[in-house]
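Field: COMPLEX_INPUT
Field: COMPONENT_COUNT = four
Field: RESIDUE_TOTAL = 450
Field: MODE = joint
Values follow.
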Amino acid sequence: MLSAGLPQGAVPRLERPGPLRDRVYEALLELITTRALRPGQHLVESELAGHLGVSRQPVREALQRLNTEGWVDLRPAQGAFVHEPTEEEADQLLTVRTLLEAEAARLAAANASSAGIAVLEELCEEGERAVAAEDVDATVACNARFHGKVMELAGNAVLAELAAQVDRRVRWYYTPIARQRGRQSWIEHRKLIAAITERDEQAATRLMREHTEHTRRSYHARAES
Amino acid sequence: MLSAGLPQGAVPRLERPGPLRDRVYEALLELITTRALRPGQHLVESELAGHLGVSRQPVREALQRLNTEGWVDLRPAQGAFVHEPTEEEADQLLTVRTLLEAEAARLAAANASSAGIAVLEELCEEGERAVAAEDVDATVACNARFHGKVMELAGNAVLAELAAQVDRRVRWYYTPIARQRGRQSWIEHRKLIAAITERDEQAATRLMREHTEHTRRSYHARAES
DNA sequence: GCGCCGTAGACTGTAGACGAAAGACAATCA
DNA sequence: TGATTGTCTTTCGTCTACAGTCTACGGCGC
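Field: COMPLEX_OUTPUT
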């Protein structure tokens, strides 16, 4: 048997840099979310291609994908423009996010294994440490991982896919105006874990709904100021 | 003034056949949903290109989009394969659909104008006529329009977009095994309209949830036989 | 006869080139 | 002086060509 002679970790799995279009996609998404590319900006294919050191083709394919996912608008015969978020759209996204996350919490309460719950606890502690250390980036990252884990425990791949897309866009809208709201958030996470542990679907739904609604309200509070 | 000399309706607006990739996308989606292309089938770019009378490029871009939307699986260096639905995935899709539709019903109850409600009534009558005439295609089409209208009345574009995607895929899974379930469905639609008219968000949510759950159960009943 | 290796074919991934549409600017005419 | 039109540049949309990679089949050794 081959696997006996070759320990799993020892084989570097022959690093094959996946399809170029995917890497271009990642790169562009990074540039957009970090605001290196501003909303409304005209993305010229040949420019991007030259900048990334590839031909136009992979850039085009990446732009197509970004278009279907709502990151750029593709005007026919004119090119790609970074999508401009509107107040209304942000609100709608937050509504949908609340919906998806709440359902994920319910399913997680129904299906989560004790091992999974342990992971949640762990992430929660990590997040609280990050808050205590006032490490904003770590807090945000940990928050994302926490929600991602809840989604994973829900065990619904379709739901997870949609939520991932919505979440990233929400974060794009949300990040620049409200990177705080740390401590309270993790208290709510704790309560959510308790509900999931007790298999209380209703409580889990309610808590997650309130949790995401909080961030929504704080979004609006900021937007008005 | 130009518009004075040229009556609005008289100018045919010069029908410009949109981007080729979009038409290829539509064509392929049609072929997939009608099962002309079977699940698991290997889609060879050059074949499709030749068959549709275009070059490989637009075909590639259409396949990319179909991939992100879950219609085909793109295996690196191997090509595109029509996605094979699994039982588990169908169930997950139905779950998500229930969720999205129920929320749409709630929002519709909250926001619908009386004009919008009138349209719903109209569609409902049309659907009932189609059922009475045992016109299956018309019934299915009308059902789609009814749900689409509810989604429109909800006034959440993001939600509508997600629901549209999920719905089409659900229909793909669902169509071959259960094109009936007509009469009961429209009775439920009537109840839903009543709830929306009375601005009863809770009832609208509950009715829509039960409604979509019915189709889900009938799916499973079929799947087992 | 069975299994492994090498080769050939096919298909995808990427690059480069050409034609066409849209926008900008300047020249012309009323 | 203002509007209009013609041209010019830029950029997209599409096509064709080439290189890399995977699969399948046939030959060779055991």
